[in-house]
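INTERNAL AUDIT FORM
Audit reference: QA-55
Scope: verify that the stored structure record matches its stored sequence.
Auditor: D.O.
Record contents follow.
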Amino acid sequence: TEPDNVDYNGFTGAWGAYPYLPSGRILGSDTHHGLFVLSADSISFTPIEGLTFPEISLNQADTVQICEGDAITLDAETEGDQVQWFQDSDYFEDGSSIEVNESAPYFAEASDGHCTSRSESVFVEVNAYPALSIVPDRQTACEGEIINVEVISNATAITYTSGSNIFELEGNELQIEESSNIFFTAFNNDCVTISEGFSLEFIPVPTT
């Protein structure tokens, strides 16, 4: 790139060229003389007209929540010829769709062989199923007494069903005063854990 440079070995001779400008010009540089804008004497270049960035969009947006052990399919719609997916900026997989089961941000890049576009990111959040343990202090009592049922859980919400009625549990303890068939349902967003059903019986007090 510089006539005075006859030896390109070593640092001062390091140079590079990028001959892909639409105008046909070449950018060349060396570390001794700097940057040059060049044109070829015997080579002609034909600029590619009408290049546009391919549009790309995903079938999901923002944040998607799934349960532990499940997977979700992410699809990319694009006019590009090639689609590459990235998980948290690391290459993940090629193809118009991928199946994922890990918490991370995902995005896709579409290329038409000349230009590349990047989609918005979608964050996949994997939620654990809530733990749920039911501990009644007893299962049989006399009429007029109370059976205390302790509910141990890390759920964000809990309901209990008695017969055909559903109630929201407030706190971590339930007091029962009449015979019931009960089960509990614990929620962590869309991930649900259901307890086994059990019966609590109140025995009439004999009269004298």
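Auditor finding: record pair retrieved intact. The radius of gyration is 34 Å.
Action required: none
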